[in-house]
Amino acid sequence: MRLGTRLAHIGIFLSGFLLLLVWPCGARAQSEQGPLPSPPKFEVRRLPSVPHPGPPPIPEQEIIQRFAANEDAMAQVYKAYTFTQTARVEEFTNPEGKFIVTGEVYTKPDGTQAWRISGRPLSSLKITTLTMEDVRTIATIPLFFLTSKEISNYNFLYAGQDKLDELNTYVFQVKPKELSRTRRFFQGAVWVDEHDLTIVKSYGKFVTEVQGEGIRLPFTMFETYRQNFQGKYWLPTYTNSDDFINRPDGSEVHLRLVIASSDFKLEQPPPPAANSSAGPGSGAPR
After folding, report:
1. What's the pTM value of the predicted model, to 2 decimals?
2. CA 98 to CA 253: how far, in whole Å?
3. Helix or strand run (H / E) with residue 86
4. Helix%, strand%, coil% for the chain, nearest 5
5. Would 172 be classed as within a structural domain?
6. Are 261 and 85 in contact (CB under 8 A)?
7. DSSP helix/strand/coil, 112
8. Residue 284 above 90 pLDDT?
9. Is 15 contained in some domain?
């Protein structure tokens, strides 16, 4: 199935509000198909920052432990693929300015992933100054997995259930217990499919003790969609972010970042799936 027509989009304001963004979009695709298109304009509603939903049908800690176990498998499977990744920055000026760079993501023998740029980047940016180092930094920031090892670094707050097209999901707010000068932590929200108990979407930012370190562009809030592979693995394939920069005359320019992955090829056998009590795709494939 191709990603459908409606998705919910929830963001968290640190000033004390949970921002719920809703637009027509999709929720599921086959691994052979391309990434989601850029979503259209969205509507904004405000909700209290501390939700008071009823309890989920299974204990919250069980959901967290099971999606973390699934994340362990996702992190391994993700490195078994090579794929094409394109980063695009758009200035909504008149005329519009764009920066586009494409490359292949692959896993090196030491287990780390690298991005091999294909050809020269194309740029018609009018206002923004963008280097390849900036692009490499931005392209790696949205990729994270809340593995069994990582969840001890976070506090989770159950925020209720949400319908993403045909998917029913549990929503959790995620906040790091402590900040560090040496690494970034995720702060935002994750959507967990109630069937597979695996993360299918995330929205938030990456924080350290030093604000803005290493990023010269204003992009801070990243929305990441995942696609279903082999009927059981949900891997990140599309990230977007919107922000604004000020011109010398005081006016604002809207910027958009899109990072899209496609043409996935399985270069090495994936690790064995975990058992059905905690592994990805528990239950019948959909």
Report:
1. 0.76
2. 13
3. strand 81-91
4. 10, 45, 45
5. yes
6. yes
7. coil
8. no
9. no
Contacts of 218 (CB under 8 A, 6+ apart): 243, 244, 245, 255
Question: Distance (Å, rounded) from C-alpha 95 to C-alpha 81?
Answer: 38
The boundaries of the domain holding residue 170 are 54-266
- H or E segment to which residue 13 belongs: strand 7-13
Asked whether residue 4 is domain-assigned, the answer is no
Q: Please give the Cα distance from 161 to 135 (Å, whole number).
A: 35
- pLDDT band per the 50, 70, 90 thresholds, residue 52: low
The DSSP annotation for 145-175 comes to ---TTTGGGEEEEEEEEEEETTEEEEEEEEE
Q: How many folded domains does the chain comprise?
A: 1
Tokens 């976070």, located at residue: 154
Of 85, 140, 115, 75, the C-alpha closest to 270 is 75
Assess contact for 194 and 170: CB atoms under 8 A.
Answer: yes
Half-sphere exposure of 77 (CA within 13 A, CB side): 25
| Tokens read off for 182 | 């040496």
Q: What is the average pLDDT score of the chain?
A: 78
Cα 3 vs. chain centroid, distance in angstroms? 16
Task: Determine, yes or no, domain membership for 178.
Answer: yes
pLDDT band for 88, please (50, 70, 90 cuts).
very high
Residues in the chain: 286
